[in-house]
Design goal:
This is Gliding motility-associated lipoprotein GldK. By secondary structure, the chain is α+β, with helices and mostly antiparallel strands. Helix content is 24%, strand content 13%. Helix 2 (92-115) packs across helix 5 (176-183).
Amino acid sequence: MFLLMLAASFVVSCSKGGGRASSGKPDSRGELVPKESKKSFEAQRPYGMVAIPGGSFVMGQADADFTATPEKAPLKTVTVSSFFMDETEVTNSEYRLFVNYVRDSIARTLLAEAAGDDTNEDGIGRYAFLAKKAGDDANAYQKYLEAQGDRDGYNDSRKLDWRVPLYWKTGQYPDEKYAEVMESLYLPPAKRINNERLLDTQKLKYSYEWEDIATAVKDKTRSASYLKKESIAVYPDTTVWVKDFNYAYNEPLFDRYFWHRAYKDYPVVGVTWDQARAFCDYKTKAKRDYVKSGKKRGDNPMKFRLPTEAEWEYAARGGLENATYPWGGPYLTDDRGCYLANFKPKRGNYIEDEKKGTYPYTAPVKRFHRNGFGLYDMAGNVAEWTESPYSNSTYQFSSTLNPYLSNQAYRELKKSVRGGSWKDVGYLLMTGYRDWERKDSARSYIGFRTIQDVPAGTARLRRSSK
């Protein structure tokens, strides 16, 4: 009996753990026992994000309403699930990574198309599609894809070789074909100012797809017909510094704000709602490609997206009930008289605190105190796009559990903007205040930050990334 029990315990212990998926057959006892590891799932905090625990709160303007328009933000108790959120607004340096990726991917695609079947390593052939360069060493699946030609849906046959460096200096071009492709990315000589050789930013377009799930579910079917294809010019509109202020001298910001290293830690502006969503898709793609590459083991990460109005307001309050501002309130200064956010404190006076630095426009991120959740600049600096459409009906009649009207998000032209900005008075910085802008408009005072969903079954949220 002892030996039988010992043998049984050995079989059971060997069947535990390992993280292997079940083969689909019952175990040795004829019982349906899952083979997955019993270890609880822990969501890992992405770099630059903080964990926002789920909870309920009173959404809306619970205190002073100087505009006497309570219909803009009526009080309602809502509940939001846990999520990760960028601790700061997306900065110029972060958004430049997106622009540079789009620039490089377009250049590599054009070079690969020009290379064709040429795989000569001394010239443009170095940039041929990976399927072309594999040649006789291609595996069965690569040969199958190659046989499909340019049929839609077989994009794997057009994978780029990112290991080969690009050369942007004309003196480093390997051959004339390479020079011809690269020159097509720049403004033609007739359109240049002072003969300055600049990239044609209108060609920097990011293409992606997303599924209109709400409509598909409503129609009780799912197919490729519900995929929405987007092609977005991603370079921010730097002219907003001139267009937004007709009677102010803002030309230095127009010339340098986005690309100069002095502004690398400043929030990006001049970005439309569509561009912000394209950035979210790129951020998701970058993370998923990294996991697929095998450099890091783990599940396919949740997508990054813009926060809903409810999520943004809940995060802005920092865990405080009925907080007028992210730091509580009701004042805009601390006990030493220092301003707590970047905004316009007085009529004609745009400088908040000369001790911390003069910020007549935007300020570098992390220059003011963070709120209870560890988020910076949830009031002031730049207002922020949300995923939610702006209307009284979408705010008042949406669900009290993760309120959001997904089937109207991309159809509505007006999008909710929250937080107030560097050019606004203190009232617009209140956590419950609502504002809006057209989704195709870019402004010098609107930026954004991203969030990532957290699976509901997560045991706990990691406070740090590894």
